[in-house]
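Lab meeting tomorrow. Please check the following:
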Amino acid sequence: MAESLLGGVLGSEDDKPEGDAPEARAGVEATASAEAFAAAVAAIASRQDPQVARDTSVFLKRQAQLLEIQAEHLRDEHALRLAHLAHQRQLLVGQRLGQAIRLAFQIVIAFVVIAIGIGIAVMLHDAFTAHNVVIDAFDAPAALAARGVTGNVVAGDVLDELTRLQNTTGGGPASAHKLSLSNAWSNQVMVEVPETGISLAELSQVLRARFGHDVHIGGALVQTDSGGLALTVRGDGLAAKTFSGGADSLQQLAAQAAQYLYAQSEPELWAAYLQETGRCPEALTFIRSVYDSVDDLQYRRLLLYDEAGCVGEVGGPLSTVLALLHQAEALDPRTTELRSSYAEEQIQLISFGEEERAWRIGQKVDQLHAGLPPVGRAFFDRLSYGLSRDYSAQRGAIVGVLQGTVFRPTGGYATSTAHLEIAHDDVALHDPGAAELELQNAPQSTPQDSRAVTYIRALIAEERGDSVAAAQQLEAAFAATANPLDRSAFSLGFAGPGCVLAPIEEAAGHPEKADAILALADAAHLVDCQRFRGDILDHRGDWTGAQQAYAAAVALAPDLPAGYYSWGVALARHGDLAGAVAKLQAANQRSPHWADVLKAWGDVLAKQGHWSDALAKYNGALKYAPDWSALKQARDAAARKSS
């Protein structure tokens, strides 16, 4: 009963007020419960003893007051606790931000340490592998400073001339061994190493001097008693040499000094430079003077290549040229080097008019290529592509070399020559527009390059049907040589460029000039000269003589397609369509990708009324010469006829 009474007076748990904080609400509830409890107890006690009831009531009221004070305290403490929690939250946010900043700082320090470690590793690697020619500042008299002539200026002039010589030297195998040129006073990163006062550049120089193989070049410029200039150059392992001249001859002296330094520090490149600039007699003397002093077998092999090339250019016998190349092959018979040697042998055989022998050397290269992917052999096969008139494959190989997608040997490849050969292939693929664009990328750093550019422009004019302009440009191209069939006339990788001059002169109405070229053709032993002779004789009505010339072209190189092709086209002109098909088929067997043969074969089939077969030939030709306008027109006509 008392339990139910107390429960009714104090209330159940579901009747608790809401909205206050838990602590405050608990205090209020406790106070209310105590007062109700006191009233209930007083009521019960009053029935027994009034004094007890009064005492009990007083006691319980005091307890209620105490509870009220505690509730008030809890409410105040709750506000303080909320403020404290908010402050702790702010402290936590700041702590997390500080940790993030500290972590970021540690990461930055780690990256800096890694960068310094990488930098030190790079400097050590560069120090151990350094093979540079470093031009130090020259000594120069203070009296010349007023004229702007200081030691740095003199060294800069020498450096500029050395750079020009290297850039002028083409991309033969020796070019892969060009030493990098630098100066010792510019482009230095002046980052100080703490507590030492030494810059990173100075540290790098110390390491390179201690562990590297750089060749340091220096010297002095002095005024002579006569008021002239004398420039002395010297270097690590190089004998000092003095060059003298007038008061205004600094550029000339710097050029002479640079040539001396180039020859002494890079003899294989100097020999190549002399050959490429038409100074073969000088090159032969130089090669023979330094060959025994060159220890590196690779460099000896390159010198033998240069000597072989120059022997051919000065009119030496083919047997001597081949003997030098075979000597080079014996120095390093590894497969990679043999491929390079065979390529040099092909070039020399082509220049001597031995195209059939050059083709057979190409077959030896094929044997070395067993198992190699196409990208691994394209560079070496490009000469064979040219012999077989596979112009699209030859062009692709050279473009691949320039773009780095085709493997090439350790030797370099001249950018100028590469662009010239691509332009020539574009003309051969009947795309004169592409050829003109390619010529814009071809530097004309040597006389041979300049003549080659003019020569290709003549071919472009001929392709567009302007024989007069073509003849004029060809005459300009060959003006510097007495013999248009001279194998050193052009820096191009194909045989007898001068042979094309004969039919172009004939087409331009200059038969006497064509005859002058033909008079040289017999000695040249070139397929193009003989087949073009046949075209000219046929044009003049000498069909018997023309067929003899075509037969001679085939006999010179029975494994090559050009003689068969020209003979087949001529037979088609004379109405012997069956004979034309036989010759063109023979040409196609030897060069399946020569678009000219496929088009000519399609033309014969069209004359025979075999339009579907002609369409197939035209479509085949378009795979290899997709921008040939005349081919597209013939293909469209065949498509209409065969539908």
